[in-house]
Amino acid sequence: MPVPSNIRNFCIIAHVDHGKTTLSDRLLQTTNTISTRVLTDQHLDSMDLERERGITIKAHPVSMNYRAKDGKDYLLNLIDTPGHVDFAYEVSRSLSACEGALLIIDAAQGVEAQTVANVHLANKQGLKLIPVINKIDLPNADIETVKKQIEDVLAIPAEEAILASAKNGIGIDEILEAIVAHIPPPPDFADGLTRALVFDSLFDTYRGVVTYVRVFSGELRAGTPILLMGSNSSYGVKEVGNFTPKMNKTEVLLPGHVGYLIANIKTTQEVKIGETITNSQRPAPEQLPGFKHITPMVFSGIYPIDTGDFEALRMAMGKLQLNDAALTYTAESSVALGFGFRCGFLGLLHMEIVQERLRREYQMDIIATYPSVVYEVTKTNGEKFMIDNPMQMPDPSVIESIAEPMVKAFIMVPNDNIGDIMQLVMEKRGICEHTESLDARRVMLRCDLPLNEILVDFNDRIKSITRGYGSMDYEYAPYRVGDLVKMDMLVNAEPVDAFSCIVDRSKAESRGRHIAAKLKEVIQPHLFKIAIQAAIGGKIIAREDVKSVGKNVTAKCYGGDISRKRKLLEKQKEGKKRMKSIGSVDIPQEAFIAVLKSESK
């Protein structure tokens, strides 16, 4: 077993589709961790969704044995990380389990928005970065420009960059030698007390929770009594092991090792990402730095299309949460949509993935309400509280201010599209703080935007404006007070809770008109006229009318005095008036689904 000085813990960080997973495959192949016969493309991405979208959703660690050119045997622990900003906290925990990182940059596309964000994260953790320019075999590869970007944008010396092609196996040996030479070995804790960082966990039906750990000091073996310092709960270790990349049982995990432990932990809620594990008989004095509870940023209601599927949906949500501790859900009911769940997600991609997994893995037919964020409401008496559902909003007369979450966005676009992108940022109530030229063709904009504005179509619009050449990444910023109001939709003077939302006052009218027009299309005509109204408090800001079904009451009058016809028409008018005051509007389920789908486009 290698001594700590011969252990290297590293991760691979990159923008989406820059070749991170392909490089992982080549490293596994070159170190003979997996034989070529068994190796599949995107080997560490085990989910169908990961393979289809070309993204990593769940981190996959693997241990590789490598004999370097100096003749020594090294243990290389690769901790694969999710690349998307929604999983930024998991990425930061994975980074804190490493001493270095391979930074992959596409030779044709150059430095992208996510590359910049990932470098910031890695620098915060004090990691040694090894830049790798990948896909050098592409006909449109521009290595010199990429080297200049590495120096100008990322402030990393260009001569450190390794030229590689993961697909064709070029430069893989140089990368392995650079890992051994430049990434520092694990630090030494003199007191010898057990400290291990939890960077992920998953649920196994037969063995309970499998916790992924990086050991910093001490040791973990079967029978060790452990304490989770964040939740202050004690367990006994049943099994420890490493990843090759399948779980491989071993006797002990020593300082610098990355592996798993199985204790009698029943649910993933009991063990949080970033938690410190120590020996309960000789505990460490304090936790490893940086632990925080994951808080959902985006909320949406998920309802079964067939109300009879509610219990099946409850079971599906429970099973999904076992493998995704960041998902939160509570039961709620809506007058319009029946029984469902209010779910909290880390971000929009996380929400999309959860909904897709419910449909695919559990065959659930679901509808999701328009996504919303968590607002901070301050009352006139100074009391502050957080709300994630417009229905929780207090009376406007007692509200002092409403603050909304902000994001700091990095947007990279071709020079030709700067004007259009700035227009889009202003439309989304954003402020462009800084622009920086990356090279002769591209520029990076740093903008402050409300999170609520980028939830649905922002990234799609950047892609369509820039014909696919633009990219965006963001990090969360502090809350900011805005001119926000709760908008209700009234159908026949009755509020419909499914369409209530919190919007900026300047956008309330256009949003109200859009929903009212859509409702007018889908609500069937009744025997009386139906008013569809958008309202802020008592003020109506938009209105559409569904005309009543006509009936010719004068059809039986053949000639005669006109007053007879007038009498019948007046009688009909009175009847319709009475019907409108006592009649209820039947809004079919399909109408809600149609409006919610048009809202989320």
Report on the architecture of this protein.
With 601 residues, the protein is α+β, with helices and mostly antiparallel strands. It has 5 domains: 179 residues, Rossmann fold; 85 residues, Translation factors (Elongation Factor Tu (Ef-tu), domain 3); 72 residues, Elongation Factor G (Translational Gtpase), domain 3 (Alpha-Beta Plaits, 2-Layer Sandwich), CATH 3.30.70; 108 residues, Alpha-Beta Plaits; 114 residues, Alpha-Beta Plaits (2-Layer Sandwich). Helix 11 crosses helix 13. It contains 13 helices and 31 strands.
End-to-end C-alpha gap: 55 Å
| Beta fraction | 25-35%
Structural class: alpha+beta
Strands of the widest sheet, in order across it, are 2-3-1-4-5-6
**Shape verdict:** elongated
CATH class label of the largest domain: Alpha Beta
The radius of gyration computed from the alpha-carbon positions, rounded to a whole number of angstroms, is 29 Å
Could you name the CATH homologous superfamily of the largest domain?
P-loop containing nucleotide triphosphate hydrolases
Number of domains: 5
What is the gist of this entry?
The chain is of the alpha+beta class and 601 residues long.
Q: How does the SSE layout of this entry go?
A:
Layout: E1 7-14, H1 20-30, H2 48-53, E2 61-67, E3 73-79, H3 88-96, E4 100-106, H4 113-124, E5 128-134, H5 143-152, E6 162-163, H6 172-182, E7 195-204, E8 208-217, E9 220-221, E10 225-228, E11 233-243, E12 247-250, E13 252-253, E14 258-263, E15 276-279, E16 298-304, H7 310-323, E17 328-334, E18 338-345, H8 348-361, E19 366-368, E20 372-373, E21 375-379, E22 384-387, E23 399-414, H9 418-427, E24 431-437, E25 442-450, H10 458-465, E26 471-482, E27 484-491, E28 494-495, E29 501-504, H11 505-522, E30 530-536, E31 539-546, H12 562-582, H13 589-599
Parallel strand pairs: 1-3, 1-4, 4-5, 5-6
Antiparallel strand pairs: 2-3, 7-8, 7-15, 8-14, 9-13, 10-11, 10-15, 11-12, 11-14, 16-18, 16-19, 16-20, 17-18, 21-22, 21-23, 23-25, 23-26, 24-25, 27-28, 27-29, 27-30, 30-31
Helix pairs in contact: 11-13
